Amino acid sequence: MNRRKFIQNTVLTGTGIVAGTVALGCEGGKEGSNDAFAKTQPLIKPSPISISTWNTSSANNASGKLLEQGNSALDAIISGVAVEEANEENTTVGIGATPDREGNVTLDACVMSPDGDYGAVLAVENIVHVAALARKVMEETPHVIMASKGAEEFAYSQGFKKEKLLTPASEKAWKEWLKTSDYKPEINIENHDTIGMLAIDDKGDIAGVCTTSGLGYKMKGRVGDSPIIGSGLFVDNEVGAAVATGMGEEVLKTVGSFLVVELMRNGMNPQEACEEAIHRIIKKGDRYKNFQVAYIAINKAGETGSYAIHDGFTMMKHQDGKPEVIVSDYYNKI
Ligand code: ASP
To answer: Residue 194 catalytic?
Structure first.
């Protein structure tokens, strides 16, 4: 029996808590090398759960409810984030998002499935539901990343509608910004940035998604961490998942989400892992004082964690019919 099957069967045959610990590090009878996680993690099959970044309760509750109805983690999160992608008042994802400095709204998104597949779209214009488009790249093409015009043309071939993403409100704000053209991403200024969402379904499978317009008034062509596997998002169905928000350049340089998942694999709980990933950024020098980065994470047992550099970050959680707003702990307490 291969390792993934063994874990799946172990989880699925349990009625809730599977007693004790199990030797998940076995492959063909040999013990795996570095799986501290595998040796210590009690296998608890959690009830379905959805978590997401920032104040995205409408999206997260939509996902949570779909999970409770028995939908897969992948279906739930794509439908969940679609709620905010279609919300014109949310200026950081989908329609109504803040454009680049030339007035183009360009969106980035990625998705990871429980079987380790990944799909992403970068710098896409005129398409609202880019998370669903990233899923199409994952499922309908031989590739994992599609960018710009090619991604847009692929979207039309899959039946996506062409829509104007710059709304009168986002155009007005951009024209106001042009008066100074002062590019200073401000900490938490929107109070809801990239939507990253992670979920576990009733089979115990984990999926994750990330959708964003990136940094407001970015240079034309700039892409951040959000659609990049291991940086903005990482899912390992044996261990857990993590997603990032904030200054993407800094998340990219530390491959943050992969780091969080690997730290969990090596024995940390999600909270400890998020804190360590933030500390990796802090250790690089004082620049962290001027930008925000935050991570949220979940492990196979359904434990969650979140941590940010600065105050003001929140995580949404939906489980057992109960939506919760979790105010995140943070590093910079001075
Ligand atoms: N991480 C996103 C980016 O850098 C932006 C954000 O989450 O605020 O594109």
So the answer is: yes
